[in-house]
Specification:
One of its GO terms (biological process) is phenylacetate catabolic process. GO terms for molecular function: phenylacetyl-CoA 1,2-epoxidase activity. This is 1,2-phenylacetyl-CoA epoxidase subunit A. Pfam families: PaaA_PaaC (PF05138). A hairpin with a 4-residue loop joins β1 and β2. The chain has 13 helices and two strands. By secondary structure, the protein is mostly helical. Bound molecules: acetyl coenzyme *A.
């Protein structure tokens, strides 16, 4: 019965083993995973836009090829994550509808604009850097298809982070104007990147249960701290300044002290009032409509193939 199934589930979690699609799982566990994995997939798909925006303007053929490959990786991650969510019983169409209707969440970070080439560097270094910090522990998430998807995604993410670091490093070795452009981009993306980890622990309604289920392994604030710790030495190598005058290692707490985060801005962005929310959804909707004929043709082709196979 259900009680036995619940017990088997609890034991798997307890022993750090994996839940697979055909296993029994509590409804709330399934719902949480659909929520998190679909939001994550949407973030990758919407996340193609701020950088896709620069493909035609990349400063060299080499930079253009790298950027195109990166944006393609993001599409791949999105599709991979949608497939993982589908194993939980939600369809691709349903997820797409939730996204283009504005009902679904996706990461706050992708609602910021990319006015300069240096923003490509800052996104790679800070946004993909934050993504790695958050996602490496997700490789051990208790749900098998999600954890496995994360392994591959993290490998590609670390390449993305290095390419961003390298863009900034090169700009910082350039002219005065290039150094200023790099620093300005870091100033723009630093705080929004810290917000990617989600609300502070005492305002994070999903954390306790997700940690008990071993979906999340560390709290939002723990990962944020780890991220800042990773950035400090890298910023020194590049010669950029992290835009927080109160950022300082606290020997006693064994953690960085930092200025308070502007959570009002975070909530505004989540409510759809960030700098580019409207534009991101509009573009996504247009792309979905423009691709309708491809989906129809593919479905029709599959139907004909099946008919032929039946003889
Ligand atoms: N942007 C948008 N929404 C956010 C963000 C954010 N940066 N952080 C938290 N939220 C939302 C949560 O989705 C949740 O909303 P919901 O209950 O309506 O779904 C709400 O704020 C409260 O937050 P938490 O209780 O802390 O939510 P959760 O336990 O899901 O933690 C987190 C949030 C850390 C983002 C988690 O979902 C996660 O690790 N997701 C996978 C990683 C991911 O999605 N990355 C996307 C950006 S990286 C990239 O794509 C390159």
């Amino acid at each position: 019965g259900d009680e036995e199934a619940q017990q088997a589930f609890d034991e798997l979690i307890e022993r750090d083993q994996r839940i697979e699609p055909r296993d029994w799982m509590p409804d709330a566990y399934r719902k949480t995973l659909i929520r998190q994995i679909s939001q994550h997939g949407h973030s990758e798909i919407i996340g193609m836009q701020p950088e896709g925006n620069w493909i035609t303007r990349a400063p060299s053929l080499k930079r253009k090829a790298i950027l195109m490959a990166k944006v393609q990786d993001e599409a791949g991650h999105g599709l991979y994550l949608y497939s993982a969510a589908q194993t939980l019983g939600i369809s691709r169409e349903e997820m797409m509808q939730q996204l283009i209707s504005g009902k679904a969440k996706y990461s706050s970070i992708f609602n910021y604009t990319t006015p300069t080439w240096a923003d490509m560097g800052a996104i790679g270094w800070l946004v993909d850097g934050a993504a790695i910090c958050n996602q490496v522990p997700l490789c051990r998430a208790s749900y098998g298809p999600y954890g496995r998807a994360m392994v591959r995604i993290c490998k590609e993410e670390s390449f993305h982070q290095r390419q961003g670091f390298e863009i900034l490093l090169e700009l910082m070795a350039g002219t005065e104007a290039q150094r200023e452009m790099a620093q300005a981009a870091v100033n723009r993306w630093y705080w929004p990147a810290l917000m990617m980890f989600g609300p502070p622990d005492d305002e994070s309604p999903n954390s306790a249960q997700s940690m008990a289920w071993k979906i999340k392994r560390f709290s939002n604030d723990e990962l944020r701290q780890r991220f800042v710790g990773m950035l400090v030495p890298q910023a020194e190598v590049m010669g950029v300044t992290l835009p927080d005058p109160n950022l300082k290692w606290n020997e006693e707490r064994q953690a960085y002290d930092m200025s308070p985060i502007d959570w009002t801005e975070f909530h505004e962005v989540l409510a759809g009032r960030g700098p580019a929310n409207h534009e991101r959804l509009r573009r996504r909707r247009e792309a979905h409509e423009a691709g309708a004929w491809v989906r129809e043709a593919a479905a029709e082709y599959a139907r004909k193939q099946a008919e032929r196979a039946e003889g």
